[in-house]
Amino acid sequence: MKIAVVGPESTGKSVLCKKLALYYNGLWVPEFARYFLLTQSNSYTYADLEKIAVGQLFWERLYESCNKNTWLFYDTTLLTIKIWSEWKYGKTAKLIENNYCSPKYDLILLSDIDLPWTYDPQRENPHDRKELFDFHIETLKNCNYSFEIVSGFGQERLVNALKILENLKSPNIY
Description:
single chain; alpha/beta; 12% strand
C-alpha cells in the first residue's frame, strides 16, 4: 500500500508517517526538502523547488523499487511542492506541474491544522495555515485523488489515521 501524508507545515506529517510505518512494519519515505534545505542554510529560491522535486521523486522511486510488498508512507509529495510553489511564487516549474497529479498513491491523508503551529527554522507561514489547508483540498480534488482528513492531538491523531486505513477499501472521496 502506498499512503501519502500531505498538508500545511507543522501539522504532524513526519511524526504520523513514522508512527504509521512502525505500526504497519512498513517504511517512511522522508521529505527530501528538509534535507535539501539543511544544505542551503534553510533558504531557497524558485529554481530550488525543481531540485527538491527531483530529489523527492528519486527517493520515492528508490523506496518503491526496493520495497514492492510493504506499506510505504510518503512524508509529503510533489503535490505539496506544487502548492508551495504556487503560494510563494505564483508559478510552478514544468517538471512539478507534469508530475504532481500522478495517481500512484492508494490514499492520501490530509493532515488537519488542528495542531498548534510550532517554530522550526524551515517553516514560514504560521498565519496562512487555513488558506493553505483549503488550497490542499482544492488541489487534491482537481487531481481526483482519494483523500481523507486526519485530525486529533497526539496519540488520537494516530488512532484516527489507523481507523481510516482500516477502511481503505471504501475511502470517502472529497
